[in-house]
Specification:
This protein has a single domain (about 5-140), classed as Sufe protein. Chain: A, CATH 3.90.1010. It has six helices and two strands. It has helices at about 5-15, 20-30, 75-90, 95, 105, 115-140; strands spanning about 55-60, 65-70.
Length: about 140
């Protein structure tokens, strides 16, 4: 499934909810689906800067595709990370770099996050793209 197809599915999922209380509950529920993060990743090296809450993200290149793992100490942030992992994990660096996070505007979350959470979401996206650039550079050197 392409990144765009996953984003379209997420948009359809959010269309099922009437109000933002329901959408936030859904986002929080998504965060609970994340696998536990190894304590060795919950360090300053992997900590996201620009996020009000504590959040960590790591990535590995497996067979040319990036696999993300992440966690946060805040339930909404953890849910947002889960959404991003669902969209971008298991895709190539080129696929990630050529895809825009259109779902953010389509589900309207950009208008329902506090400024600090919006900055955190931007920091998460930036980190995902930085991993994609790094892995693309690495694979091009081989």
């Amino acid at each position: 499934m392409t990144i765009q197809e996953v984003q379209n599915i997420i948009v359809k999922e959010f269309e099922q909810f009437v109000d933002w209380d329901e959408k936030y509950k859904y986002i929080i529920g998504l965060g609970k689906t994340l696998s536990p993060l190894d304590p060795s990743i919950r360090t300053e090296k992997y900590k996201l800067s620009g996020c009000q809450s504590q959040a960590w993200i790591n990535a590995k290149l497996v067979d040319g595709k990036i696999m993300f793992e992440a966690d946060s100490d805040a339930s909404i942030v953890k849910g947002l990370i889960a959404l991003l992992i669902r969209i971008y994990s298991n895709h190539t660096p080129d696929e990630i770099l050529s895809s825009q996070p259109e779902f953010i505007k389509k589900i309207g979350i950009d208008n329902h996050l506090s400024p600090t959470r919006k900055n955190g979401l931007g920091a998460m996206m930036k980190q995902i793209q930085m991993y994609a650039v790094a892995f693309k550079t690495l694979t091009n050197k081989k």
